[in-house]
Amino acid sequence: MTQTHINIAMLAHVDAGKTTLSEALLYKSGSIRKAGRVDNKDAFLDTNEMERNRGITIFSKQAVFSYGGCEFTLLDTPGHVDFSAEMERTLQVLDYAVLIISGADGVQGHTRTLWRLLARYDIPTFIFVNKMDQLGTDHEKLLDQIKDTLSSACVDFSKNEDGTYQDKDFYENVAVCNEKVLEAYLEGGSIEDESVREMIQKRELFPCFFGSALKMEGIEELLFALSEYTKMPEYQEKFGATVFKITRDAQGSRLTHLKVTGGVLKARNLLTGHKQNKPEDKVNQIRIYSGEKYETKDEVEAGTICAVTGLSYTYPGEGLGSQEESELPILEPVLTYELILPDGVQPQAMMPKLAMLEEEEPELHIVWNEELQEIKIQIMGEVQIEILKALISDRFGVEVEFGTGKILYRETIADTVEGVGHFEPLRHYAEVHLLLEPGETGSGLTFAADVSEDMLSRNWQRLVLTHLEEKEHVGVLTGSPVTDMKVTLVAGRAHIKHTEGGDFRQATYRAFRQGLKQAQSVLLEPWYDFRLEIPNECIGRAMNDIEGMSGKFDAPDRNGEMAVLTGIVPVASTRDYAKDVTAYTKGHGSLTCT
Predict the structure, then answer these.
(1) What is the pTM of this model?
(2) pLDDT by residue (tens digit) across 100-117?
(3) How many whole angstroms separate alpha carbon 207 and alpha carbon 203?
(4) Residues contacting 244, CB < 8 A, separation 6+
(5) Exposure pattern of 94-113 as b/e (b: 16+ CB <10 Å)?
(6) What are the φ and ψ backbone dihedral angles of 367, each rounded to 5 degrees?
(7) Which of 72, 107, 241, 519 could be a cystine partner for 417, CB 3.0 to 4.6 Å?
(8) SS3 breakdown of the chain: % helix, strand, coil, rounded to 5?
C-alpha cells in the first residue's frame, strides 16, 4: 500500500530524547549516513549555534525521509515550556504526532499539557517510551501510568523477536477501542489493518512503543508502524495553505513556512490572505528543507510542507487561498519585560530590527511606549530571555539586558458604547464613529466596517481599519492592552478639499479612546492552571500555600506515597513558588503551570 505524504512531529517534555529519536528515525530510514548526538553538538536538526551549545531545541525544523513506500516530513519541535507557542503553531499543520515519554521520568506535567493540545487539535498520536536502556525502568509500570494518566486506549504494540506481540491480549485490547471492530473480532477472531488505521486516525487508539533512541532499539518497529498504520488525509481541490512560521535564511531572505491544504502551489503564484487591506504577494521560490539544506520545486501538491520566498506580508496562523485563519496558540506569555539598550543605541533605530524578530516569534509582542520611551517585550520565561539576548547579539550585534518581569494584565469592556473622534485643526478634517462591543473570551480584537460608501468612501474606510489594526490599544484603567472586543466603523466624514490620510489616524485613535472612557472597563488578570505533585506529608503545607496565594484547588488525589493537587492560581502570586516546592519537598515535588 503506497501512500503519498505524511507530516509528523516529535513532541516531548524537555530532555525526553526528542532530537535523538528524530536522528535515529532519519538514520534507520537511510536519510542520513550518521546519527548525530545532542551532547556531541552534531545533531542534524539542531542547526542553530545556540541549540548546539545548550543541547535543547529552540526552533522547529524539518527533515524529509522515506520508509516502506511512504514519504514523511518530520518536524522536530521545541520541548522547553518557554518555546511552547512555537511548538503549538507546528501542531496546526500535522497529520500525526509521536509523543515521546522518558522511561526514566514517566508522564510529566508538560507531557499532560502536550496531550491536551493534541486532543484540542485532534491529532492522531503514536507514543514512544524512550530511554528504556536506563536502570530501574519498568515496562509494565510505565504502560499502566500512561493508560491511567493519558488514555485507556493506549495499547502496547511492542513485538517479540519472532514477530508476535508481547502483549498476549493485544487483539482484545485493540478491539475494545471501537464497538464495530470488537463485534468483528468476536465473530472472526481477527482485526483488519485498515480498521487499525482508521481507529488511529480517529484518535480511538494510540499505539505505544518502547525502546532507546540512543541505542537504536525499537526504532524500526516505530518506523514500520508509521508507514503501515498512517493514512494521508483527504484534501480539497481548490488551493489553500496554512502559514505556521516565518524565518530568515543565511542571506536574510524572508521565508514563509506553510502547509498546502488544497490544490497545487506553483512558483510565481499570486497569493491572497483573508485580511482586508493586505496587498497580494507573489511566490518567488518553493523550497523543501531537510535540515539546513533544501531543494527547490516548481510546484507542490496538497499535503506538502514547504518554505517559500517572495512573500512580504504573511504571518503565522494566516490562511491563504481557500484556507481559513488558524486559531491563536493557547499557551500565551504572562510576563512583560523592559528591554534595556546599551548607551548610544537609539530605541527608534532598534524597533525595526525587533519587528523582524516579532514576525518570527509573534508571541514576543514588542511594544514601544512613547510616554516612557521604553521598549517592552512579552516573554514566557527565563530561558527565553537568555535566548533572546543571544539572538539579538548574533543578528544585530547589540548587547541588550532585560529589566525585572512584570505581570501582563489585559483590559476589556462589559457594555456596548459608541466612541466619536473629531480632528479639525486649520485645513484638516476627519470624523470617525466606532461601535465598541464586548467580544467572547479569548477572541482578541476584531475590526469591521458597517457604513455606506455614500457616507464615507471605501478608501477612507480601509484607512480607518488599517489605523485600528496598526497599533496596540491600551485601556483606561491601568494602561494595559485591550482585548476581547469587536470594533465596528459605523459612521465617518471626510472633507473634499481638506482631508488628508493622517487626519483619519487622529480621528480613529480619538474615537477609540473616547469610547473606552465611556465604557464599563474590566481588568483581566492572568491565572494558571496548576498541578502540584508532592509527598503525602507535605499536603497540608501545600494547601495553606495555595490558599495564601488566593488560589483554588480540588480535593487532593493520593496515589501511594505521593499526592496531587490541581486547581487555579493567579500568576502574580506564584512567581518563585516552584523553587519553594523544591525546597520544602527536598526535591521530590514538582509544580506544573499552564
Answers:
(1) 0.69
(2) 999 988 887 778 878 988
(3) 10
(4) 89, 90, 92, 93, 257, 258, 259, 316, 317, 326
(5) bbbbbbbbbbbbbbbbbbbb
(6) -125, 135
(7) 519
(8) 30, 30, 40
